[in-house]
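Much of what follows relies on a compact textual record of a protein's fold. Think of the row as the fold of the chain written in a discrete alphabet. An example makes this concrete, so a full record is given next.


***
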Amino acid sequence: MNIKALVLLSGGLDSMLAARVLMEQGIEVTGLSFKSYFFKTDKAKKVAEQLGIKLIEVDFSQEHLKMVKNPAHGYGKNINPCIDCHGLMLKKAREILEGGSVGATLAVAQNQVGASPAPTKTMYDLIATGEVLGERPMSQNKDSLKLVEKISGLQGKLLRPLSAKLLDETEAEKQGKINRDKLLDISGRSRQRQLELVKKYKIKEYTNPAGGCLLTDREFSNRLKKMIDYWSDCDINDIDLLKNGRIRWLTLKDAKERQGNNKILVVIGRDKKNNEQLERLKQPGDILIELVKEVGPTSLIRGARNRELGIREFDFEVPKELKIDELELDKEKSEEEVINFALMLTGYYATKTRGKKIKININIIK
């Protein structure tokens, strides 16, 4: 039989090995990778190239962000909704398997063996992942694995080749499409079995673990959680600001423009790259603060009411010493006080300008 499998590729070792185990049975494997605001498909592309298989990429950024804001089954250690995220990915995979459309976000990546043709109803016989029973205590225990199947609508249809012998038999196995005896029984957090397979399959390059999801990063996760709490309508441009500098939240007096919220965001760039990104991300109504002559940070204020257009340049005296914890950040501030706060930090973090009078540009974006 010419069996075809759609395998979710994260770019990590486990999903790579899952694909390889199926390929050893003569199964034709196509990789499937997802792109969102919090992770990319770069690693999956490299894995597909190394395996010599086709790769389908799906950008589900908008739908994924909506889920991240309010996951049905909660978050993990940080703001990572792994159960709902895996369920959403597999729901999309099921749509491809059943010949449905995943919308305009479906793109096909071309690698060593050419581009994958558009999915048809009979194109794939099964869906597989690289999940390992017990490797992640919260999202890969038996109950969680079954819950993910339920969310995706793949009960009894989802194959996990690395732990298959420890899980219920799937329809593909019952129908003889897969030889269960050639599947594995890996469990737990030890990587010993996986490393043995690396040698067996002569895999030269791999990532272990896949990583790359910003939602598992503690600092970014804390920033995002606060933004979602303050600005429930936040979009990707807002979220991108969190990646580009020092973050300060202030409370603006008598300003309730974002869903009844009066929180205002101040971002101070840490380096040239941050400064360039803040320049790129600016939107109408934002206030951009830049040093005129000195080298230092660019700062951006978002959420202000001031809609006066134009650029103002003036002299500002930077404090020689500054204690952030004495600035009463939890106290409501006028818009002028917010701007002065941003001016002060912009000059202070330039370090060489401390205690000096410098020229600063304030640009209220049109």
